[in-house]
Write a structure and sequence with these properties.
Radius of gyration of chain A: 20 Å
Shape of chain A: globular
Order of helices and strands of chain A: HHHHHHHHHHH
Helix content of chain A: over 70%
Structural class of chain A: mainly alpha
Oligomer: homodimer
Strand content of chain A: under 5%
Number of helices of chain A: 11
Number of strands of chain A: 0
Chain lengths: ~210, ~210
DNA sequence: GTCTATAGGCTGATAGAC
DNA sequence: GTCTATCAGCCTATAGAC
């Protein structure tokens, strides 16, 4: 809610809105716990209702439908991803920063499998909705992307990027590889037989050697 | 069914078995069409029954449950993937062969989204079952993996592989990147903003530069 | 605002008739 | 072997009482 909307309301309406927001957050919190514990398929209105001590029907007062709750959950996921990038983002050297961001991405995905799955592997409709709805702005999704792009821009400016690449293309290649590592490990933990750590090291080194000159 | 089993049966039993196999194939064929058209979630016993002109209950005479059908569908997917690799596998130069296999993999995934999704993005339980159940043998899954591994072995033998890599690790890095490209495009077609072709070119070139020395 | 009740679906799987 | 009927559940979403 914008500041403009707030000042236009009376104090009572304002308090009501605050309570409403709190309730919405409670719903999303419960939804997160359900998804983390039992996956996206287990996210039903009944289970959310149970978790917050209300009937399923009440939830429709706060969210239009189940997809809207999943969308809110995804947005929270992007905020967490940006937070996971924060320590890496302070590193001065762009190549070290890029590598640290990459490692943070993979750690995020492997330690929050169900959140990651919801954000990037589950429902194209909802993922598209959240990414498009928040594109262009200073959204968490764009800030996460920027954390990968920005070190590559700096490397490009220093003439370190392979010369057939532009920073956005290099960022997409990087993202693809990181996503591939996380998502393949989430769906078939056994098969890429290389252990997680060695695979991450080899992937980061391959990207560093392959993207730079 | 093994040859040994066949010769131990009478001619009548043999014919019965052949009919049974034919029926099983019909079921899997119908299942494939449903998954291709409407996705894995639409794969229900009732819909399969409708498609083959039998009741849902009859299917349980041929498959233990729905997961067994999904597993059979995945195995067919691996066979198709190996077939998709066939033209590339004849190329003599190992680097050209590796690149052609990579392109064939991405084409397979992007042109059969629902099959690919079922094989690598959907249900860890079934994917694990099929990959483990067919590991070690001359299964389609292993042959698909071999198509990526083998050119890398040849490059390794010629001393062309980056020297901190072994062929299996390099194969896993390659697979991860290809899978990342396909799976990200399937879940959010819009966001990695680089067009498919340019992204594939950039990824293959990055892998070639990054894995080799 | 919250509830119960319910419409109107869907699912996998099985029992028992034929 | 195939069927119908059914069990035992699940779901989203809404109407209408309070």
């Amino acid at each position: 809610m914008s500041r403009g909307t707030l000042v236009a309301m009376g104090a009572a309406a304002e308090r009501r809105e605050r309570l409403r927001d709190e309730f919405r957050r409670e719903i999303v919190g419960a939804a997160r716990r359900i998804v983390v514990e039992d996956g996206y398929a287990a996210l039903t209105m009944r289970r959310i209702g149970e978790a917050i001590g209300y009937s399923a029907a009440s939830i429709y007062q706060y969210f239009a439908n189940r997809d809207a709750i999943a969308g809110a959950l995804m947005e929270e996921g992007f905020v967490e991803l940006v937070e996971a990038f924060a320590p890496a983002a302070t590193i001065a050297d762009p190549l070290s920063r890029l590598k640290a961001v990459g490692r943070a991405y993979v750690r995020f995905g492997l330690t929050r499998p169900e959140t990651y799955r919801l954000m990037f592997m589950e429902d194209p409709k909802i993922t598209a909705g959240v990414l498009e709805g928040s594109a262009g702005e200073n959204s968490a999704g764009m800030r996460a992307y920027a954390a990968i792009l920005e070190p590559l821009v700096q490397l490009f400016e220093r003439g370190r990027l392979r010369d057939d690449l532009t920073p956005p293309v290099a960022a997409d290649v990087m993202w693809i590889s990181l996503h591939g590592l996380v998502s393949l490990k989430l769906t078939c933990p056994k098969f890429p037989a290389t252990p997680d750590d060695a695979l991450l090291d080899a992937t980061m080194e391959t990207l560093a050697c392959g993207l730079l000159q």
